[in-house]
Amino acid sequence: MELSGKRLVVTGGAGFVGSHLCERLVADNEVVAVDDFSNGERDWLPDGVEVVEGDLTDPDVAAAAITEDVDGVFHFAANKDAAADDIEQYRFNNRLTETVLDRMDAVGVDKIAFTSSSTVYGEAPRPTPEDYAPLEPISIYGASKLGEESLLSVYANSHDFTAWVYRFANIVGPRLQLGAVIPDFVDKLEDDPESLTILGDGRQEKSYLHVDDCVDAMCHVVEHATDDFNVYNLGTRTTTSVTTIADIVSDEMGLDPDYEYTGGDRGWVGDVPRMRLSIEKLSALGWGPEGSSDDAVRRATRELLDG
Length: 307
Description:
The protein has two domains: 7-170 and 208-234, Rossmann fold (3-Layer(aba) Sandwich); 176-207 and 237-275 and 292-306, UDP-galactose 4-epimerase, domain 1. The strands form four sheets. A seven-stranded parallel sheet has the order 3-2-1-4-5-6-11, with helices on both faces. The protein starts with 6 loop residues before the first strand and ends with a helix. α1 (16-25) packs across α6 and α5 (181-191) crosses α7 (242-252). The model has no long low-confidence stretch (mean pLDDT 96). It has nine helices and 13 strands. β5, α4 (140-158) and β6 (162-168) form a beta-alpha-beta unit. By secondary structure, the protein is of the alpha/beta class.
């Protein structure tokens, strides 16, 4: 689908990734952002974006946003707490997607892009390709994303939808909020420049992608992938450890703190300590990241400190 001259709905449009996508799309399209502002900020939305405020588990909110003249939906709305250990997160995220798909089907809107996560793979061999199986998530968040992917697969295969599913690495950049490792480290070091407590053993190692590259990749996939059901990993070919992130953040803040580790090989229940996605499928489609995971972390740290 060409992303020009369209009317597009972005659910979770005021959130971290959603607001950056809205900035990209609004120059050439009519954009409707749907958000209850639990994870985002209204002032992150650029001028020219229509706003529908509300909880998308309410069919009336979905009906207000997804009308017959909509060309496609970018579905980013979710309870995004990857450390949550509550089955209600699974139920809530799947209700969101059920409501969106039901409304789309009712009014004949048949194109949807969806933000999934690398957590659907669980603790898989690395680099992990899109066709790796079996998918065995170890967190409620990962299970919720896999359930939502399954719903999209049904609509793509049985309701004539086109679906694009993005399995994200860790996305970093401006507007990244507390709960993510970079802003958490900055917050801790501003409070105590002499020491930094690090969850786990510091050897947890994952891929990091800057949000600008993430938006580029998402748009590229929608414009170039033409199957009914399209699944793409979005990440880098490199990884970085939690201790290296601490080193980068400390360096950018001009500090040399002592590190204190909480022990164990993972940060929280359900955390996958090591993750690297294969991006060969994305590369074959004609897109690849310009920088490494370390580059993304350093850029995001500088942007957070400058912001």
